[in-house]
TrEMBL record:
Substrate binds at residues 98, 329. This is Phospholipase D/nuclease. It comes from Coemansia interrupta. GO terms for biological process: DNA repair. Its main location: nucleus.
């Protein structure tokens, strides 16, 4: 069912929905063939071990956990290996990647979600999940490609044991069509141009996502043609300069390689970005209680009230299920004159400098471990009501609206 890759919404507690649109955590880890998971690699900001291991109950399933916070640790379970990747500046850097790799006898399941690994994360806040199955043949070594190499490097960055990374050799990734984008905290990796916003720009350039700006060498030749709709559950210290850098990267161009800070010559009026975030009122009206917002939605009051914050970029985030909250991290990019084609990102990256990195004239700085995928050749309907990828509609957990904040609207602040 996931052989060619699919995006799903997570199933909401007490809400009826089409089976083709939503998926539960049980559905994610279940194999149609009835096979048992031999090894599960699970990463997350929060991992509720008691809840997770109740789903991964087979005595034959080995489990590797990479997390920032572990809730209800099951210390007596010998099946479990626990890892915390290195953080050179631990007081400000976090492990936020949300990735699962499930090894069955006949295939490997690749899962990128926006949900924390907790029961609430999969049932009372809306998230998005990308899933693809790849054939596996034990003892065989398949030829590596750009996807498998990017995945291996990402696992290495997360300090995943080499023997587990080595299992990727048994997997045939020829049908992979998603592009992996990761971030590591500054100081934890090597060449920072391989991560975050710089990695996004490189992926989009290699995929030819914006033919109009392909191969530019100077920012003065840049022809902005994109519109970005950026959804997240965290709101950080944004400013016009950072939005300009991200906007250039969204066209497959690197601000650092275009003679930064020359990118400053791009007028703010041409940076077409909507930052979608829940309002205070929406959190207060959540059907599951406002405490859900306290646990899953975060915006820095100091950052939002800073005079440099681009308040005009804020737009309302409308969930597809009324009076619920969206925890997804998604970027939708509409490119070109018609705005009918483009790309989308789904993963753990919130639309913040901590997740995507911040550039200056000589360097790039980021705070977090993040993981996500970019899907190219996305199609948008003329009335902005739907998104399609691979010929199928993408069931997003939010509506494709572009309604600016009203005068009385403020994001949910802490």
């Amino acid at each position: 069912m996931f052989s060619r890759g699919a995006v799903r919404r997570t199933k909401m507690q007490g809400v009826k929905s089409l089976a083709s649109d939503t998926i539960s955590f049980s559905g994610v880890i279940e194999a149609k063939s009835g096979e048992t998971i031999e090894h599960a690699l699970v990463t997350g900001f929060y991992i509720d071990e008691h809840w997770l291991l109740s789903h991964l109950s087979s005595a034959n399933t080995r489990i590797t956990l990479v997390a920032e916070h572990r809730l209800n640790e099951q210390l007596g379970d010998s099946r479990v290996t626990r890892i915390t990747p290195p953080k050179p500046k631990a007081s400000v850097q976090i492990m936020h990647s949300k990735l699962m790799i499930l090894y069955f006898a006949s295939h490997m399941r690749f899962v990128v979600s926006t949900a924390s690994m907790t029961p609430y994360g999969w049932s009372v806040v809306q998230n998005a999940v990308f899933i693809q199955d790849f054939p596996r043949a034990k003892g065989r070594v398949y030829t590596a490609n750009s996807f498998s190499l990017a995945l291996a490097y990402a696992l290495h960055d997360l300090s995943v044991p080499h023997e587990l990374i080595g299992l990727l050799n048994e997997v045939k990734f020829a049908d992979a069509r998603a592009h992996i984008v990761t971030t590591v905290p500054s100081g934890a990796g090597g060449n920072m141009e391989e991560y975050g916003a710089e990695r996004l720009a490189r992926v989009l350039k290699e995929a030819g996502a914006d033919p109009e700006n392909q191969g530019l060498d100077d920012i003065d030749e840049f022809r902005p043609n994109g519109r970005l709709y950026c959804v997240g559950s965290s709101l950080g210290p944004l400013d016009d300069k950072w939005l300009r850098d991200m906007y250039v990267c969204a066209h497959g161009l690197s601000p650092l390689k275009l003679g930064w800070p020359g990118v400053k010559t791009l007028p703010n009026s041409l940076v077409d970005i909507g930052v979608a975030f829940h309002t205070q009122q929406q959190v207060e009206q959540c059907r599951y209680g406002s405490e859900v917002g306290e646990q899953h939605i975060y915006a820095q009051r100091k950052a939002y009230e800073d005079k440099k914050f681009p308040h005009s970029a804020m737009v309302r985030l409308e969930p597809v299920v009324d009076k619920t909250l969206v925890h997804a991290k998604v970027i939708l990019a509409r490119m070109g004159e018609s705005q009918r084609a483009g790309w989308m990102y789904i993963g753990s990256h919130n639309f913040t400098p901590a997740a995507w990195g911040r550039m200056n004239s000589k360097s790039y700085y980021s705070n977090n471990y993040e993981f996500g995928v970019v899907l190219c050749n996305v199609e948008y309907s003329s009335d902005s009501s739907s998104v399609r990828w691979d010929g199928r509609e993408v069931p997003l957990p939010f509506k494709l609206t572009w309604e600016p904040y009203g005068r009385s609207d403020t994001p949910y602040l802490k």
